[in-house]
Amino acid sequence: MSILIDRCICFNRTFAELKATSREVGATTVEELAEHATFGQRCKLCRPYVEEMLRTGETEFSRIIREGDTSGRH
Question: Checking CA distances to 9, which of 3, 26, 43, 49 falls within 20 to 30 Å?
Answer without folding.
Answer: 26
